[in-house]
Amino acid sequence: MKAKLVSRLGTDVSAAVNGSPLRIYAPSLRTLPEGSLLVMATLPVIDWNDCLLRDLRALSDKGCVHIYAAMVMIDPFACWEDFRDLLKGAGISGVVNFPPASIIEWPTVGIPLSPGREIELRRMEWFASLNFKTMFAAATESEITVAERRLSSSLQGILHVREEDLAMRIEDEMELVSGGQQVLSIPQFSLSGATSSKETGRKKRE
Fold first, then answer.
1. Which residues of the chain have a pLDDT value below 50?
2. C-alpha Rg value of the chain to the nearest Å
3. Full-model pTM
4. What CA–CA distances, in Å, run from 19 to 22, 60, 68, 80, 108?
5. Long-range pairs for 89-92 at CB < 8 Å and ≥24 separation?
6. Which of 75, 77, 62 minimizes the C-alpha distance to 16?
7. Looking at residue 77, what is its pLDDT?
């Protein structure tokens, strides 16, 4: 009997191989203090994209076809061409807007599309034009509808991010639970929290 293959949000790419489920690569999470809640990832306490950039520079081409690099797509200071080159150099062919603009900015009720969300979608469209696959993190069904229309064939998955998810404790490995295909013809996932194994807790880092 084959072991169950589990999709994850993780801080490294070492556990991802061809033929495995998708993996959201978020090395920036490991720079947060041990025991932090996921809400810390939405606050300006670290330079999220710079942490990813430094990690990418240390990677060689691993052919990570199922990896989606987690990026803040509304970063006004990012050099996106550097990300393009480093992602391709590492063999990473997917990007995801995590943490999403809708969680970072908390748009005003009644406004269907916040300015940050539009910037985010345009940046993801840019990655899609470069043949990157996209995964879209969203808090509402309306955001998913817009992403499906705007990202079209590049869109490979949806990550539902709920407000209550922000109270989860960050771990090096966080399982993604499949939400089925009730609305779209693409995979949908949600965070289930940290892995249950005591041995996969966050490692001490200098």
1. 1-4, 17, 107-109, 112, 181, 194-206
2. 16
3. 0.82
4. 9, 19, 15, 29, 42
5. 89/56, 89/59, 89/61, 90/13, 90/56, 90/59, 90/60, 90/61, 90/62, 90/64, 91/61, 91/62, 91/63, 91/64, 91/65, 92/13, 92/25, 92/56, 92/59, 92/62, 92/64, 92/67, 92/68
6. 62
7. 92
